[in-house]
Fold Acyl-coenzyme A thioesterase THEM4.
Amino acid sequence: MHYDRCFGCGELDGGLHMRSTMGEHALVHSRFTVTEAHQGAPGLAHGGLLACAFDEAIGSTVGNVLRRPSVTGKLETDFVRPVPVGSTLFITAKVDGVAGRKLYASAEGRLDTEDGPVAVRARALFVEVALEHFTTHGAPDALTKLKRAEQINP
Ligand SMILES: CCCCCCCC(=O)SCCNC(=O)CCNC(=O)[C@H](O)C(C)(C)COP(=O)(O)OP(=O)(O)OC[C@H]1O[C@@H](n2cnc3c(N)ncnc32)[C@H](O)[C@@H]1OP(=O)(O)O
């Protein structure tokens, strides 16, 4: 968790409540379980929420592997298989490269087990920002709030 009120990883009611774990070879593993609240078509996950889960999984990967403050500049998703309500996506993400402030990363999500069929792939460009990005555009006390989450979950 990088911030307790983050929609992706925080404690908010209705949030995605995702957690990430660093694995071997700098791969980062996250899980997203699709509930009734995440539906688009009846019984199926909404594509925008799946994109959100991948934004979170990749953002957490960039943050934890590179330890550079950054924001999503671009996020591309390939939805290759339907994701039913009740299923869990096992997401594995990695950093693909760094070019100055541009941080490239990607992820794939497999259905229900770590070696299940791939249902979603995503690629993202994160752009490194100064910490003032968060205090100027977000909340003046943003750094205190982010630091609090770091203390809960170092
Ligand atoms: C642990 C954390 C988990 C968090 C997960 C969730 C993360 C998020 O959702 S963050 C929220 C969503 N994202 C945002 O709000 C970002 C809003 N955008 C911005 O603030 C700015 O556009 C920002 C910071 C991305 C870039 O602006 P700026 O700092 O002026 O840099 P800028 O010069 O435009 O771009 C830097 C480089 O990135 C490239 N770039 C920026 N955006 C894009 C894009 N969409 N596509 C391709 N390239 C891009 C530029 O071309 C430039 O490349 P080069 O250096 O080769 O010329």
About this structure: Helices lie at 47-66, 132-137, 142-152. The chain has a mean pLDDT of 94. Residues 47-66 form the longest helix (20 residues). The domain at 20-152 is CATH 3.10.129.10 (Thiol Ester Dehydrase; Chain A).
